[in-house]
Amino acid sequence: MKLNERSVAHYALSDSPADHTGFLRTWGGPGTAPTPSGTGRRCWFVLKGNLLFSFESRESRAPLSLVVLEGCTVELAEAPVSEEFAFAICFDAPGVRPHLLAADGPAAQEAWVKALSRASFSYMRLVVRELESQLRQARHSLALHRHSSWKAIGSHCKPQAPDRRSPGLENGHSPSKDCSPVDSVEERGSEPAGQGLAEWQGPASLFLDRRQSPAFPETSYFSTLHNWYGQEITELRQRWLRRVWGSRPAREKQDGP
Amino acid sequence: MRYNEKELQALSRQPAELAAELGMRGPKKGSVLKRRLVKLVVNFLFYFRTDEAEVAAVLLERSLLLGRTDGAALSAGFLEDPERKYHFACGSEAQCQEWMGALRRASYEFMRRSLIFYRNEIQKMTGKDPLEQFGISEEARFQLGGLKA
Lengths: 257, 149
What we know:
Chain A: Plays a role in endocytic trafficking. Required for receptor recycling from endosomes, both to the trans-Golgi network and the plasma membrane. Chain A: Its main location: other. Chain A: Belongs to the sesquipedalian family. The complex is a heterodimer. By secondary structure, chain A is of the alpha+beta class. Helices cover 46% and strands 18% of the residues of chain A. Chain A has a seven-stranded antiparallel beta sheet with strand order 6-5-4-3-9-8-7, covered by helices on one side. In chain A, strand 8 and strand 9 (99-103) form a beta hairpin. Chain B is built from three helices and nine strands.
């Protein structure tokens, strides 16, 4: 079977991160008996991702062997010579003998078994997908939380704007309770040009009243908050501008291109 | 270098991330473009030499991927010899983009970086380490640093 061996060897020697390294006794190799016997051969092993390389020594410039670790399990094993801390890499594939290895001590044995068991690309992919989904959920629930508390206040503070969403639908958040103090503020002193500002100030002071400012513990949510406020500011500004233009004499509008 | 050929052959028969018949030209001088069944499985690209009923493998770690500006061709080279490239001819620009994306993601290094990124983001948002549930939060490979060989 062809393999891009030069690239593989180059990768083995490169400064790409190694996930585990150490000396192990190995019983595989050319010229060895099909059944492991004797004390095995001591080699320097380097685990990079799902690739286990062996070298004659730490200074070797070329790997001796490669074991691709997909579709395998790792188990403790009996070494041909007792008192070895042995383990075996076992594959599902037909006609494949387990790779027998032995560490220098029980701690090393445990560390290698753990590292090799979780070395497969498939395992890594599972974890990444799981985290992707967790992050999506965390972002979603954060957005919903902020959205419901912000919108619930917002919809009651813009008497002229149509309700785009029913606040009651979001997280069972009860809008009337939160907004009643603001309603009275909004209905006073609202000339069209000033209303944009009043709308902006209203909710902010309400946040402070509720001891909940944008800097409240989730400062790490800042980028989300930043985007959220940015959107709200843009919308408010547009609405304000429309009102301002709407109050100007008609001939100015006709001057446009 | 010895390697576990039987296992690699078995791997080539596993479900692929992406598989298609593409035009392919190897890195050797004078090689010609041939139709091959190309299959992406974990961080290996397998291609089947139908005339010889044999499968060949290309490890995709630290590969250098380039797409041609007219869209339907891409090449994969490797750091130790950037001139030695595998060339692929796709059926369309869309297919080419699809393969570029898939090849780029088909590396353990890419997975590792993604994992570290997601872990940090989740930690920032929730204050919790999502790897704790897997019992792997202490593994060196998931830290921002990482061991060198």
